[in-house]
Amino acid sequence: MEKIEKPLDSWREELDEQQFHICRLGGTERAFTGEYYATKTPGIYHCVCCGAALFDSDAKYDSGSGWPSYFQPVSKEAITEYEDFSHGMHRIEVRCGACESHLGHVFPDGPRPTGLRYCINSASLKLVPRA
């Protein structure tokens, strides 16, 4: 996957305030407030920053967490994972594999077949419905 790098000021000009705070500064949206947490529209969820395909709606499920949740990304290359020790916790941060946009975190309490729960901020995504 081709890596996309831009200065922070360029991202600030391209994204709205919430998208910038979440995607470029590692913030989060409040539970049950994001555009996609309850969406059931079939399609592919892309990175709002660079347009890379990240998650398929076929892997989306209701985790009850208040954020869109998926049991797997569209490919291993679609995301990167980093250890996150912020807020006094140890978590695994998930970023876009192309532009390193902060997406959310992955937890080992998801459904089969992977047992993973990718808990993703709606503001970091753009749903492209299936035709």
TrEMBL record:
It catalyses: L-methionyl-[protein] + [thioredoxin]-disulfide + H2O = L-methionyl-(R)-S-oxide-[protein] + [thioredoxin]-dithiol. Its EC number is 1.8.4.12. The active site is at C119. Binds 1 zinc ion per subunit. The zinc ion is important for the structural integrity of the protein. One of its GO terms (molecular function) is peptide-methionine (R)-S-oxide reductase activity. The keyword Acetylation does not apply. It comes from the Bacteria. SUPFAM superfamilies: Mss4-like. Gene3D superfamilies: Peptide methionine sulfoxide reductase (2.170.150.20). Zn(2+) binds at C47, C50, C96, C99. Its cofactor is Zn(2+). Keywords: Metal-binding, Oxidoreductase, Zinc. GO terms for biological process: protein repair; response to oxidative stress. GO terms for cellular component: cytoplasm. It is an enzyme of class 1 (oxidoreductase). Residues 8-130 form the MsrB domain. PANTHER family: METHIONINE SULFOXIDE REDUCTASE, METHIONINE-R-SULFOXIDE REDUCTASE B1. Belongs to the MsrB Met sulfoxide reductase family. This is Peptide methionine sulfoxide reductase MsrB.
